[in-house]
Design a protein that fits this description.
The protein is α/β, with parallel strands linked by helices. It is about 40% helix and about 15% strand.
Length: about 280
């Protein structure tokens, strides 16, 4: 909102240079100082206890190492780690600006039902990024993005997979996981096997976290019956920060990029309304 007000009221402020040649930036530190000096606001944020790693965290790499040795995995492309996360359309932060000393702080949108989708990403040990798999809340194709949505065709060209959960939430299910394996994971491995000139039944390793659907008997049995050459390994609970490549290497920068794009959309939409004559209170 502050960025939009400045754009609207002082459109040249971001183009003006100070005496030392630096340009004005609406940085976090400037916003913090401005709100403290003029409104007596300070940042409030919730806290929670940090999750501790299990004492035998180093030993969790041994089963994966043994599987790589025993299955004779010759190329890093044949080891894929997948991870999923929820992406909120309009996230409500866990902190906000309020009067100094206030004990009870309500945050707009925090108690509301989250509108989100599940994003499943995968990466091979060779650094190949697999196509994204997006699960939307709903029970029909009408729950999926419109073909007229911006960049929709580009997403299809990148082989993104849009599916609906067929349940009342956006969580992935046994059916959506099977769709991911048959539509994204297996085609990726078949292409890599053909490039390397190895048999199509060459064993491959799928590394997953200990999520209920991944660990379910139905999903494991389905993999064993349909793709016996896919050998799955589970990242022990509580070790994703050190043993899940997708968690730190992919999800964290990806969420940051999504956050920046969400901010860009809000700035564009708010500025459009300001230019149309609406006031900040109305927005």
């Amino acid at each position: 909102i502050i960025v939009n007000i400045l754009h609207h009221e002082l459109p040249n402020i971001f183009l003006m240079a100070a005496k030392d040649g630096s340009m004005f930036k609406c940085s976090d530190s400037w916003v913090k100082a401005f709100l403290y000096d003029h409104l007596q606001y300070t940042i409030h944020q919730g806290t929670r206890a940090a999750q501790k790693l299990p004492p035998n965290v180093d030993n969790q790499f041994l089963p994966l190492s043994l599987t790589i040795r025993d299955d004779v995995i010759p190329y890093p492309e044949f080891l894929v780690n997948i991870d999923q996360t929820n992406v909120i359309y309009q996230p409500a932060k866990g902190c906000t600006y309020e009067h100094i000393g206030l004990k009870q702080v309500a945050i707009v949108g925090q108690e509301e039902k989250k509108c989100a989708f599940t994003l499943l990403v995968g990466i091979s040990a060779a650094g190949d990024l697999l196509a994204f798999h997006i699960v939307h809340d709903g029970k029909s194709k009408h729950s999926l993005p419109s073909p007229n949505a911006p960049c929709y065709n580009e997403a299809l060209e990148l082989k993104f997979q849009f599916v609906f959960s067929n349940i009342d939430t956006y969580c992935a299910t046994f059916e959506t996981m099977c769709t991911y394996v048959t539509g994204i994971l297996v085609p990726f491995w078949i292409e890599k096997k053909q490039q390397q000139g190895v048999p199509l039944n060459q064993p491959c390793i799928l590394q997953l976290n200990c999520w209920s659907v991944h660990c379910s008997l139905a999903f494991r049995t389905w993999l064993d019956i349909n793709y016996e050459w896919i050998h799955y390994q589970f990242v022990p609970a509580g070790t994703t920060g050190v043993a899940q490549p997708c968690d730190v290497g992919i999800q964290r920068p990806l969420k940051l990029a999504i956050k920046e794009l969400q901010h860009e959309d809000i700035v564009t939409e708010t500025l459009t309304q300001l230019m149309a004559g609406r006031t900040a209170d109305e927005i």
